[in-house]
């Protein structure tokens, strides 16, 4: 199956609640370094996701929910565990005004969409619906819409496969 057909099936729509965070959420906020010893036990490490920013996040988040940040989300070390634990929690995507470049890249590599958009109008608990193909975020709580640059078909195919490693294992190549 070619990348375009896989992409059409790749998470065209996600629906869940917004968990709102501010600017400069670091990889240490996301996956606290004091739990480094859990790096080989992702489910256990995920129990501590974002606990320095919101101690209740990991116990409240449900599959399909969204992490919503401000500017410079994911700054700090190149710790790949940061987007991994967010994904492990079942988060459908991270929405932010901007991302630290390495976090953005690592997110797609592990199969977690990172979407750049204006998050000012989104509030904690808002029910969101995100379409990766059309680039539309509907805030169902407020009956408003936001736009972001749609994820290219090739990247949606990568996300559908679960990330870069899974894509290469599945297809035997990096080619999208």
Q: Could you give a short description of this structure?
A:
By secondary structure, this protein is an alpha/beta fold. It is built from 8 helices and 7 strands.
Low-confidence stretches: 6-10
Regarding quaternary structure, how should these chains be classified? single chain
At the fold tier of CATH, the topology name is: Aconitase, domain 4
Distance between the termini: 11 Å
Supply the CATH superfamily name: Aconitase, domain 4
Which shape, going by the Cα principal axes? Answer: globular
Number of continuous helical runs: 8
Q: What's the count of strands?
A: 7
Q: How much helix is in the residues?
A: 25-40%
CATH class: Alpha Beta
Q: Could you say which structural class the secondary elements and strand pairing correspond to?
A: alpha/beta
Largest sheet: 7 strands, mixed
What is the mean pLDDT?
Answer: 90
């Amino acid at each position: 199956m070619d990348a375009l057909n896989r992409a059409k099936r790749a998470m065209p729509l996600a629906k869940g609640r917004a968990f709102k965070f501010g600017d400069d959420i670091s990889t240490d906020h996301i996956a606290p370094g004091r739990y480094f010893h859990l790096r080989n036990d992702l489910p256990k490490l995920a129990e501590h996701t974002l606990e320095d920013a919101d101690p209740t996040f990991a116990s409240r988040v449900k599959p399909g929910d969204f992490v919503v940040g401000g500017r410079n989300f994911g700054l700090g070390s190149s710790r790949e565990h940061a987007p991994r634990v967010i994904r492990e929690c079942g988060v459908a995507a991270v929405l932010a005004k901007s991302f630290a470049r390495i976090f953005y890249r690592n997110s797609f590599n592990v199969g977690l969409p990172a979407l750049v958009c204006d998050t000012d109008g989104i509030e904690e608990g808002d029910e969101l619906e995100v379409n990766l193909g059309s680039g539309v975020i509907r805030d169902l709580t407020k009956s408003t819409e936001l736009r972001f640059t749609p994820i290219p078909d090739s990247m949606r195919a990568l996300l559908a496969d679960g990330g870069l490693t899974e894509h290469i294992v599945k297809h035997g190549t990096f080619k999208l």
